[in-house]
């Protein structure tokens, strides 16, 4: 799709969600960094070392080669391992609910936390978290909550080198910091997909990088 076609996909409901979450995070004193096209919100030490270690253990136990939601997947596009965490694990759910409470979003609109592991040399090329409605997968996603609005990502550790999250179009790069929660809106102020939210998991140069990611939908995911 062209930028013009994305810009036409406006939504009052998605615009309202974006505005309400932004107001809530600001009122909670969550720090932010802004570029002309994107605002990143971050909270240091959101997770304790013990909780981070627990999630890393779950990822190591269940990880599989990461997949892509695309009509033409490229195996070289995303080279990490990943897994869905057990949503009903008491400790995992407590973390999940803390994210929902902080952002003011309903638990039922949030997808299950996904754990991701990047070994040295692994990466995730530039991509969007929102769904491309011209892809065949959209029909199913539309029935299960619709478009992805917000993303919440927690860095579980800090690799020795590399592994930054780079929002190249927005001119912003985030270095992994253990326990830090990073959040952004995948929609623009009009509720249309925001191309400035494109990001990449840059290559890990040394050590191993662990993160968990939670995506929220405009409707009810479950």
Overall tally of structural domains? 1
N-end to C-end Cα span: 29 Å
CATH architecture label:
Sandwich
Q: What is the tally of beta strands?
A: 14
Structure at a glance:
With 222 residues, the chain is an alpha+beta fold. Helix content is 25%, strand content 27%.
Can you walk through the features of this model?
- This protein has a single domain (3-161, 171-217), classed as Jelly Rolls, CATH 2.60.120.
- The protein contains 5 helices and 14 strands.
- The chain has 222 residues and is α+β, with helices and mostly antiparallel strands.
- The two termini are 29 Å apart.
- Strands 1-2-11-7-14-5-4-3 form an 8-stranded antiparallel beta sheet, covered by helices on one side.
Keywords:
25% helix, 222 residues, Jelly Rolls, 8-stranded antiparallel sheet, 5 helices, 4-stranded antiparallel sheet, 14 strands, single chain, alpha+beta
Explain the layout of strands and helices:
Elements: H1 3-7, H2 12-27, E1 31-34, E2 39-43, H3 49-62, E3 64-65, E4 81-84, H4 90-103, E5 114-118, E6 124-127, H5 138-143, E7 148-155, E8 161-162, E9 165-167, E10 172-174, E11 181-185, E12 199-201, E13 204-206, E14 209-217
Antiparallel strand pairs: 1-2, 2-11, 3-4, 4-5, 5-14, 6-12, 7-11, 7-14, 8-13, 9-10, 9-12
């Amino acid at each position: 799709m062209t930028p013009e076609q994305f810009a036409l996909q406006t939504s009052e409901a998605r615009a309202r969600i974006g505005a309400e979450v932004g107001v809530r995070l600001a009122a909670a004193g969550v720090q932010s960094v802004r570029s002309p096209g994107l605002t990143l919100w971050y909270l240091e030490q959101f997770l304790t070392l013990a909780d981070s270690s627990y999630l890393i253990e779950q990822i190591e136990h269940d990880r599989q080669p990461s997949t892509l939601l695309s009509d033409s997947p490229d195996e070289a596009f995303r080279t990490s391992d990943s897994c869905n965490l057990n949503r009903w694990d008491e400790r995992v759910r407590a973390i999940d609910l803390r994210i929902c409470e902080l952002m003011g979003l309903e638990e039922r609109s949030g997808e299950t936390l996904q754990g991701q592991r990047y070994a040295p040399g692994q990466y995730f090329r530039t991509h969007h978290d929102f769904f491309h409605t011209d892809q065949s997968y959209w029909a199913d996603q539309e029935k299960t909550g619709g478009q992805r609005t917000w993303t919440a990502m927690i860095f579980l550790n800090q690799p020795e080198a590399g592994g930054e999250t780079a929002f190249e179009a927005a001119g912003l790069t985030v270095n992994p910091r253990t326990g830090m929660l990073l959040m952004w809106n995948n929609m623009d102020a009009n509720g249309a997909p925001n191309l400035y939210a494109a990001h990449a998991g840059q290559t890990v140069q040394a050590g191993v990088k662990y993160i968990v990611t939670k995506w929220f939908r405009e409707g009810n995911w479950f």
